[in-house]
Amino acid sequence: MRTEECLSPDSRTVRTAHPTHPHFYKMKFFESQQVGEYDFDFSSYQRYLQEHRDLFPPDVYAFAIDTGNYDLRSHQSLHDAWLERFCISEPATGERSEIRAIQIEASFLGPYHDLKIHLVYSGVIEYSIMTPQDFAHPHLRQLATAIYGYTK
Fold it and tell me: Which of 5, 133, 139, 140 suits 57 as a labelling partner, its CA being 20 to 30 A distant?
């Protein structure tokens, strides 16, 4: 499968499946305006979702349109949630388990630590994982700084 690389508004490289692939989805970015200390105007994002509702599987649309998933005061928001579990698996079906698929599951402790949020991505076509260079063993770096005054 060929991939396209495009730049997001903040100049991050984003890889997407090539448009000729049957599961191609074009990524779109929205900028929201801050309205108060904890409020943002997501009306352009919501309008886009409503206008293109038929392009999304029903459960994906329901998740995306639910403002509680991105409202900074919401208990179900992923903002400030803590990642607890991240799993990539290849569930198999078929008589000899020959039909393989990629599935990614992520579990978070909610931002108010009062609930767990579980996300499951099935039918994944491609994924990439990168750890930022400055994240390598942060607890060891903090310990070395505390004991030896080490800084990078």
Answer: 5
Q: For 63, list phi and psi in degrees, rounded to 5.
A: -65, -45
pLDDT, residue 140, reads 66
29-38, 42-51, 52-61, 110-119 — most confident range: 110-119
Question: Token match 């260079």: residue?
Answer: 133
| Site of tokens 């008589």 | 95
Could you identify the residue written with the tokens 């293109």? 52
- Give the separation between CA 41 and CA 28, rounded to whole angstroms: 17
Helical ranges in the chain per DSSP H = 43-51, 58-65, 138-148
Mapped onto helix, strand or coil, the DSSP state of residue 134 is helix
Bridge partners of 120, per DSSP, are 105
List Cβ neighbours of 142 (8 Å cut-off, separation of 6 or more): none
Distance CA 84, CA 120 (A): 14
The pTM (predicted TM-score) of the whole model is 0.62
Q: Give dist(CA 79, CA 70) in Å, integer.
A: 7
106 and 83 Cβ atoms separated by less than 8 Å: yes
